Amino acid sequence: MSKLFGYILSPIFYILFGLCLCVFHPIQWLCYKLFGYKAHKVSVDILNFFLTYCQLFLFNSISFKNEYDLPTDRPIIFAANHQSMYDIPSLIWFLRRYSAKFISKIELTKGIPSISINLRLGGGANINRKDNKQAISEIIKLGRRMKEQNWSTVIFPEGTRAKDGKLKTFQFGGIATLLKVVPNALIVPVAIENSWKIVRFGMFPLATGNALKWTVLKPIEPGVKPANEITLEIENEIRKVLDQPMAQPATL
């Protein structure tokens, strides 16, 4: 039934999703040019509210849970699992008060309404995966902006989407690089559930009737453990939520 309804509802979803991107593209540009970064950020937040709740037209429910009083006066590294591109609008919207930035592929900075202009103007890191030196340099620059502006960053330590929902091994390089620049950043795991199911039939039809969940887990203070141990702890906390087997420390 999910697939059958998907054939009917996916065109409606894509039209609304695409319309949001096209409408907010010039709005973002005008906000930035006329009023600066803060106005641009508000326009991006509103855009991602609409992109998030477009899921209702697929009868997908939206749930965000955060039981922790996270600070707004220090940088935060949000570390999440990654299941589909639909993870990102919701993270931007729900974490908006923390000015969360992203580490994105540089290819995305061109040709996509709203998304490309936000990546160019929003202050995140746009990396070339084929150029390790450039990627590290961009992440370091992002870390400096975090430090100066009390911004936060969302990082996907898996490195790529888990298209079947099964968590991939987390890599600690990105977290380690950021912590070298922003050693006081609070580490906050975020577990994402069921967004992979939206695209389990591919781009068309999209699946309907899924319970999409974003859950903020217990924050981790930096400085006590090395980055690889912190990353393993993040991975295992997310595995508990997803009810998947625990990962074991790497052996030499």
Automatic annotation (TrEMBL):
Protein keywords: Acyltransferase, Membrane, Transferase, Transmembrane, Transmembrane helix
KW Transmembrane (keyword) present: yes
Coiled-coil regions, chain positions: none
Pathway info: Lipid metabolism
The protein's name: 1-acyl-sn-glycerol-3-phosphate acyltransferase
InterPro entries: Plipid/glycerol_acylTrfase
Domain Phospholipid/glycerol acyltransferase, chain residue ranges per copy: 76-195
